[in-house]
Amino acid sequence: MALNITRNKNAVVNKGGGELFVREINPETMTYPDSNVYDLGYIEVSDFKDTAEMEEINDETKNVVKLNKTNHIVQITATLLQSDANTLDISKFCRNKYFQIYYYMGKVDSNDQELVIPVAMINPSATLNSTNRKINIEITGLKISNNYDYSSGYSGFPHKNYISYTFNTNEIYKIFDSDIGV
């Protein structure tokens, strides 16, 4: 795959935090324990991060001959705007559970941009005071141990477009960019 970036003002996103949905998943069997899909409500702001540290491998003369990727982290951080009792329950609900993540990132250059993380854990934190009643969540994607066939029709998420994709072993996420209707 070649990198082919061109300047395109229509590809600039300047509003909205996106739509974030989660569904509990068993990471061993890659099956859903129930049929519930959870909408995390209105999002003020969200960030997607894919980072890794690089470890230098040196030869006997101390020249760098190779770089190994270590500490690969894929995360979505988001601030939820709602602070009603149901939204606050996210802190209790998410503990020690695994989730599949669907994140609608909005329109980019007339295309719907959708991100799927097959297995993730959610770390919520709430700050409730008289001027700031928001919930912050941090979603960390996890590597999968086997290939996994994902289908938007089976997932239960409100995809904008039909998606069928095979996640390879150790793959953490996939971003889909499509203008094809369902």
Feature tags:
182 residues, mainly beta, eight-stranded antiparallel sheet, two-stranded antiparallel ribbon, 3 helices, 10 strands, 7% helix
Explain what the structure shows.
- Strand 5 and strand 6 form a beta hairpin.
- The strands form two sheets. Strands 1, 2, 3, 4, 5, 6, 7 and 10 form an eight-stranded antiparallel beta sheet that branches. Strands 8-9 form a two-stranded antiparallel sheet.
- 19% of the residues are buried.
- The protein has one domain.
- The longest helix is centred in the middle third of the chain and has 5 residues, at 90-94.
- The chain has three helices and ten strands; from the N terminus they run E-E-E-E-H-H-E-E-E-E-H-E-E.
- Residues 1-7 and 11-15 have low confidence and may be disordered.
- With 182 residues, the chain is mainly β.
- The chain has helices spanning 85-88, 90-94, 152-155, and strands spanning 19-24, 38-39, 43-58, 64-80, 99-108, 111-128, 133-141, 148-151, 164-167, 174-178.
